[in-house]
Amino acid sequence: MRIGIVGLLRGLYMAELAHRIGVEVIAVCDRDSERLAAAQAVFPAARATEHWAELLDAGLDGVVLANDFDAHTALAVAFLNRGIHVLSETAACVSEEEGRQLIAAAERSTATYSFAENYVFHPHTRLLRESVDSGELGAIEMVEADYLHSLSPQDTAALIGDPAHWRGRIAPTAYCTHTVSPLLDLTGAWPVEVSAFPVGRGGDRPAAVVLTIRLSDDTLALVRHGFLAGETGSHWSWVSVRGAHGLAESVRAAGGDAWSVRVRKEGWAQADGQTCEQIRVPGPYLVNNEPVDRMAEGTVAVLEAFRATVECGTPPLIPVRPAVAASLVGVAGAESLAKGSVPVPVPDVYA
């Protein structure tokens, strides 16, 4: 399998992991000449270019889109139209119109679209999936997720206040897929309505937001993302699943403990009447019999699945409609925020 990488800040990291699992990186692309030179040093045989359109005729089986957050749709549509499989990072689209264009392109293409949402497949979310699938929690009633960074006010302002950087261009609600996608995957539902609330005092652009989302199965989802003090810095993610019979949640802790999950099953719901509470630790994720760094596990899982999709026809782990649905939560959330946190319908991409 031969792939190209567009966007070499995050993309070079993904290229190195792709190479580790046996995928051939034959092209690299970035508008930044220094990043391009750094990638050439790692992949000297790869074609290097500052112009992504040149990769359309580069003999690729697939392409990884790791360019700016808000600039994926046009590229994904162009590659799909050429029959090149797409693995796209973070946001699938930034508007309903883009989302529907992407769905149409993916569903008419001979190639496939996969969403590179690695937080769905990190160790703690995989453990939560096992707990949900076992049925031990009972019917799921509420799910929550955080994706938060603890930066100084100065560093936060510099990051989200720079109009030349994509973080300065996007709405405060936009970067929501690291929280929303794991919850959609765990419930098997899709978003119906969202209300967005700013966190913090003053200013036109809050550093963090809370989204309250009603899902299609009436589960309530509560997500928080952005910049708030006090996070451990382990992997910035916390996920919780509350069922009728118990709770499973990732552990708020520093270091490797943050990948573990606490499960509590209420005694009144157990045959023996005994409350059960335990900490579950994820096993290693192996590539060529060697464990992968915990923070890389979700990305490796996504890349391995992309290879299976291209080479074996395996369905994408996260196909186009769930990718668009998660991204449109941020779009509808921005409308809610602008209107004073009123509930806003999320466009239905499953109809």
The main sheet orders its strands as: 14-13-12-11-7-10-9-8-17
Radius of gyration: 20 Å
Q: What sequence of helices (H) and strands (E) makes up the elements? A: EHEHEEHEHEHEHHHEEEEEEEEEHHE
Percent strand equals 25-35%
Taking the alpha carbons of the first and last residues, their distance comes to: 34 Å
Summarize the structure.
The protein is α/β, with parallel strands linked by helices. It is built from ten helices and 17 strands. It has a nine-stranded mixed sheet with strand order 14-13-12-11-7-10-9-8-17, covered by helices on one side. A six-stranded parallel sheet has the order 3-2-1-4-5-6, with helices on both faces.
What key phrases describe this protein's structure?
single chain, alpha/beta, nine-stranded mixed sheet, six-stranded parallel sheet, 10 helices, globular, Gfo/Idh/MocA-like_OxRdtase_N, Gfo/Idh/MocA_oxidrdct_glycsds, oxidoreductase
